[in-house]
Design a protein that fits this description.
mainly alpha, Arc Repressor Mutant, subunit A, two-stranded antiparallel ribbon, 5 helices, 2 strands
Length: about 130
């Protein structure tokens, strides 16, 4: 996995796991890889993955069944969507709108581009 320099690795791993939950790679009540398995797969220290899992557990995305492993919490997908939408609306939308205005992209053009993007990036159905 390629990591960004401007964000802690454990946070990037948490974002990746959340994205995998949103894409249904991990579903509610499903076991996720152990700390060691995940560390090996992304080539990071197990302590970094443990910090990631601790963070995800503290916000209710995953839970631990002692001796068995970590599992996706029921409602995790909705929780992630809510958190990501709030982050986008509170932190990024102002910049996004400013760029649209600055670049002269009107709502009709934006709608067309968004529709094209959605048509080209449909997620496969289960």
């Amino acid at each position: 996995m390629n990591f960004q320099e401007n964000k802690p690795i454990f946070q990037q791993l948490a974002d990746r796991i959340c994205e995998e939950i949103l894409l249904d790679h991990y579903c509610a009540y499903e076991r996720i890889p152990s700390v060691r398995e995940y560390a090996a797969s992304v080539e990071v220290n197990a302590n970094t993955v443990m910090r990631t899992y601790d963070q995800l557990q503290s916000i209710g995305i995953i839970y631990n069944r002692r001796g068995i492993g970590y599992f996706v919490s029921p409602g995790a997908k909705e929780l992630i969507l809510d958190m990501k939408q709030k982050t986008f609306l509170n932190n990024e939308i102002e910049y996004f709108f400013r760029q649209l205005l600055t670049l002269g992209i009107d709502s009709q053009k934006l709608t067309k581009l968004y529709d094209e993007y959605c048509n080209n990036h449909k997620t496969p159905e289960k």
